[in-house]
Amino acid sequence: MSHIEARIRRFPVAFASITVIVLLLISATAYAIGAGDLALGRGGSPSSGDNLAAMNMSATPSVQPAPANLTALPQPAVAPPVGDRGPELVKYDMTAEEVTGMLDSGVAFTYWTFNGTVPGPMLRVREGDTVQITLHNAPNALVAHSIDLHAVSGPGGGATVSQVSPGHTAVFQFLAEHPGVYVYHCATAPAAMHIAMGMYGLIVVEPAGGLPKVDHEYYVMQSEFYLTGARGQAGLQDMSMDKLLDENPDYVVFNGALGALTGANALQAKTGETIRIFFGDAGPDLTSSFHVIGQVMSQVAVEGGSLVNTDVQTTVVPPGGATTIELKPDVPGDYMFVDHAISRVIKGAAGVIHVTGPDNPGVFQTIQPGDAGTGGH
Ligand SMILES: [Cu+2]
Question: Distance between terminal CA atoms of the chain?
Fold first, then answer.
């Protein structure tokens, strides 16, 4: 992955000299968002506190020094399989927390999160379960938050009744009627901003009887980050409402940070093992063309529903959409997964599946090697 990071490093710091002009434009834009209620969320309306916070956030200097000794946020765990059981009442306790972590080498960002990770916790229930969500908003939060789960049949996907001010709590429950894999996200206005700050995750609703057993399961979500400074500019960066409205992100990444799923954090498997990836696209704006370089996906749940496609090279996952992907590598190597809108790899949209095992010359072998180091894609 070092070549990607090296390419990102080449983009110079360039925006400082136009900060004042940009701030004026951003402030005006933030005001227009609040006044015009352009929220993408299906529930709730902007509180005055949210609008003020949006304006204040946009009006801060573009890049402050990053706090010392900061690391990337921890990765959320894959929720364990439901197994073969009957319907139950399942309770989840979630907290909206604002947490600062590293988005890229040298680049810090104060994320808005569910439970301190990006993506938020993976929720996993059975078709027919009643799911009770308790949403707290941390007392030191800057703004109100909420949750809209796409698995919900009800107003705002839950967001209408879960708008919580700092220090407050809301509780609601829903019947998980439809099996599949679904995005959840904060839907407090402007929802695009709350998603761009990191407030999203997946809920898996397993069919009766459970999902077939596989060797490895992983939880991956793509999203964009829009910053007031330049990509790679060191410091604590803020979110740019201007770039958000232009749908022109500085970063497109998997699991909240550049390199979150590479190197020591790469997905792992042995040859012949089946990997299942629960993959969601939080957006807020870009459609993912999910592709694993050097692999054909053996199964893809079309649009995350019950229809399964087989032998897929690239699958389209829209913002607010998700899918379940399975693949079975039979040749060892490092397999990069990307958004095949391939310029986004330069913006960080790359992870790695590290596959170990014996060579398999019947499937792949080198006859005469080319020049080393030129790579593929
Ligand atoms: Cu929020």
Answer: 13
Domain 216-226+241-356 bears CATH identifier 2.60.40.420: yes
Contact 252, 308 (CB under 8 A): no
Residue 186 CA, ligand 1 centroid: distance in Å:
5
In this predicted model, what pLDDT tens digit does every residue of 99-110 receive, in sequence order?
Answer: 999 999 999 999
The residue to which tokens 């956030």 are assigned: 57
- pLDDT averaged over every residue in the chain: 87
**Residue 355 CA, ligand 1 centroid: distance in Å:** 37
194 CA → ligand 1 middle, Å: 5
> Do 11 and 258 form a contact (C-beta atoms < 8 A)?
no
On the question of a common fold for 2-206 and 216-226+241-356, the answer reads yes
- Sequence-distant (6+) residues with CB within 8 A of 53 are 142, 143
Residue 142 Cα to ligand 1 middle (Å): 10
Domain range list for the chain = 2-206, 216-226+241-356
> 359 alpha carbon to ligand 1 midpoint, in Å?
48
pLDDT tens by residue, 54-83: 444 444 456 899 999 999 999 999 999 999
Q: Which CATH topology does 2-206 take? A: Immunoglobulin-like (2.60.40)
Ligand 1 center from residue 331 Cα (angstroms): 43
pLDDT tens by residue, 175-188: 999 999 999 999 99
pLDDT (mean) for 343-358: 98
**Can you tell me which residue has the tokens 């009627």?**
177
